[in-house]
């Protein structure tokens, strides 16, 4: 999503380009792209001018939405129980709410800005 956000409004991006830039196999990228496309966050176009692009502005996509689509509910695998199990389940539910609150506070645009700032710092250090 970061790679697509960096190219938002410029051009559609091929999976092989993302794969090369990010060091992620095309097969794994497809596993990530498919649910994001099905959820309406990514558009695709076939043909020589085709590729992938964000379906909406990076300002409109929260980190929470991306994580939820790719990972599902966090900390949602605790079974109800008694005693210690219930205390741990309650704790993880509280942690989950706080994590989601933080993820909700960041948009993809925020991540792009952080990436660009870090890239400049690394660029100047070299």
Give an overview in words.
With 126 residues, the chain is mainly alpha-helical. It is 59% helix and 6% strand. The protein has six helices and two strands. A two-stranded antiparallel sheet has the order 1-2. The protein is elongated, with a radius of gyration of 18 Å. The mean pLDDT is 87.
Q: Strands of the largest sheet, in order across it? A: 1-2
Order of helices and strands: HHHEEHHH
Question: How big a fraction of the residues is strand?
Answer: 5-15%
Principal-axes geometry comes out as: elongated
Radius of gyration: 18 Å
- Proportion of helical residues: 55-70%
Mean pLDDT: 87
Total helical elements? 6
Largest sheet: 2 strands, antiparallel
The low-pLDDT segments are none
Q: Using DSSP, what is the number of strands?
A: 2
Tell me the structural class. mainly alpha
Termini separation: 27 Å
């Amino acid at each position: 999503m970061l790679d697509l956000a960096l190219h938002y409004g410029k051009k559609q991006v091929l999976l092989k380009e993302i794969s090369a830039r990010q060091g992620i196999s095309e097969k794994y990228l497809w596993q990530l792209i498919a649910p994001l496309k099905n959820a309406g966050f990514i558009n695709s176009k076939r043909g020589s001018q085709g590729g992938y692009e964000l379906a909406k502005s990076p300002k409109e996509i929260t980190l929470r939405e991306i994580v939820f689509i790719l990972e599902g509910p966090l900390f949602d695998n605790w079974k109800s129980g008694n005693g210690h199990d219930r205390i741990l389940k309650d704790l993880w539910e509280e942690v989950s709410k706080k994590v989601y609150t933080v993820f909700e506070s960041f948009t993809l645009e925020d991540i792009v800005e952080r990436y660009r700032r870090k890239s400049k710092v690394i660029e100047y250090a070299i």
